[in-house]
Amino acid sequence: YLTPVTQNIMIGLIVFLPLLAAIYVGLSTQRMSNGAAQIITSGGLVLSAIFSGIVFYKVYTLGAPLEWSL
User: Fold this and answer.
1) 1-17: buried (b, 16+ CB within 10 Å) or exposed (e) per residue?
2) Fewer CB within 10 Å: C terminus or N terminus of the chain?
3) What is the block-wise mean pLDDT of the chain (70 residues), using blocks of 10 residues?
């Protein structure tokens, strides 16, 4: 069960998690290896995809209203 607050946070992470991972890796490329950069950016994308699936299931299958605000 997702509360509206949790759903809003999850939708925000779907949008911004890959961006934040890319910014973090871009700003710290001198201090990390290529493998670590790949893990961080891929992890952001995978988490975003998982959150997308959860929100899709809740909205499409369960018919929950989709309300999001900044």
Assistant:
1) eeeeeebeebbebbeeb
2) C
3) 77 93 93 93 96 87 70
